[in-house]
Amino acid sequence: MKPILLGIAASCFFACSFILNHAMQLEGGSWIWTSALRFLFMLPFLLLLVGSRKNLMPLLRELKTHFWRWFLWSLIGFGLFYVPICFAAAFEPGWLVAGTWQITIIAGTLLVPFFHETVATPYGPKKVRKRLPRRGLLLSLLIVLGVGVMQFEHATHIAGRDIFFGVVPIVVAAFAYPLGNRKMMKVCEGKFDTYQRVLGMTICSLPLWLGLSIYGWFTVGPPSAGQSLQALIVAISSGVIATILFFSATDMVKGSLHHLAAVEATQAGEVLFTLIGEVLFFSAALPTLISLGGMLLVLTGMILHSLASSKNELVVVAQTTTEL
């Protein structure tokens, strides 16, 4: 149950990104700076955290030895995740971006067959491709149905072009985030804690953020003081606190793809937290009853994922106790 609670707590802090990203767009801030500043601001905080735990040098040696693997999955897990999210914020309100982002739950389920596990055979250990968890897929489809309902209602009020640019980038990000996260867990092989992994991915994705900053400086000019402050808040709350909470939760269940999918499903809480935040702090209009119905489907899917995970965990514990 602890990984689920950590996942829900992470979703609360992650919601800060959706709220402030949309606010920065409304105030004229470019998505280029919104994405780049978050990770540039994250770096000193993470260096301080990892350095204070005396874990910096082992990480730097690992990056020097296996840089290209870290670079690839960091670009996918951080870059291909956050840049599209910030871009989409220019076309949809924060609560709708957060709702559509829940496609990541079914994305995480669909990625299962792309990973292998080692099983014992009469001929020795053998790597086999993991099977698609059907129950998890059905629960994930309920969440996607809720996303579809919300987007359908929203589509009646805006142009098709805005729907396209508001949805397609999020779908790309929804697959990139769990893929990058899971691949990095494989690369780390349990050698590094969550703080080290987040710092390593931030360092390895720096070329992207620095490149975006240079591009932004010459195309849209420097960021405003307001955007910089908001990006700093996002970096601390979502980039540092939420990411560490979420990665800690996934590290706890990395041996079980079913539990991993359940932890990823807790991110559906971002929809509710984002809606509450936008209404309270930015006086945003409440969604229609149809959109609220879609949101309810998303949250129901998240709860069912968590309950199914808890039930399976109890069965495993009971079987283990019987064997002992």
From TrEMBL:
<keyword id="KW-1133">Transmembrane helix</keyword>
<protein>
    <recommendedName>
        <fullName>Multidrug resistance efflux transporter family protein</fullName>
    </recommendedName>
</protein>
<feature type="transmembrane region" description="Helical">
    <location>
        <begin position="271"/>
        <end position="304"/>
    </location>
</feature>
<feature type="transmembrane region" description="Helical">
    <location>
        <begin position="136"/>
        <end position="152"/>
    </location>
</feature>
<dbReference type="InterPro" id="IPR032713">
    <property type="entry name" value="EmrE"/>
</dbReference>
<dbReference type="Pfam" id="PF13536">
    <property type="entry name" value="EmrE"/>
</dbReference>
<keyword id="KW-0812">Transmembrane</keyword>
<feature type="transmembrane region" description="Helical">
    <location>
        <begin position="198"/>
        <end position="218"/>
    </location>
</feature>
<feature type="transmembrane region" description="Helical">
    <location>
        <begin position="31"/>
        <end position="50"/>
    </location>
</feature>
<feature type="transmembrane region" description="Helical">
    <location>
        <begin position="70"/>
        <end position="90"/>
    </location>
</feature>
<keyword id="KW-0472">Membrane</keyword>
<feature type="transmembrane region" description="Helical">
    <location>
        <begin position="230"/>
        <end position="250"/>
    </location>
</feature>
<feature type="transmembrane region" description="Helical">
    <location>
        <begin position="158"/>
        <end position="177"/>
    </location>
</feature>
<feature type="transmembrane region" description="Helical">
    <location>
        <begin position="96"/>
        <end position="115"/>
    </location>
</feature>
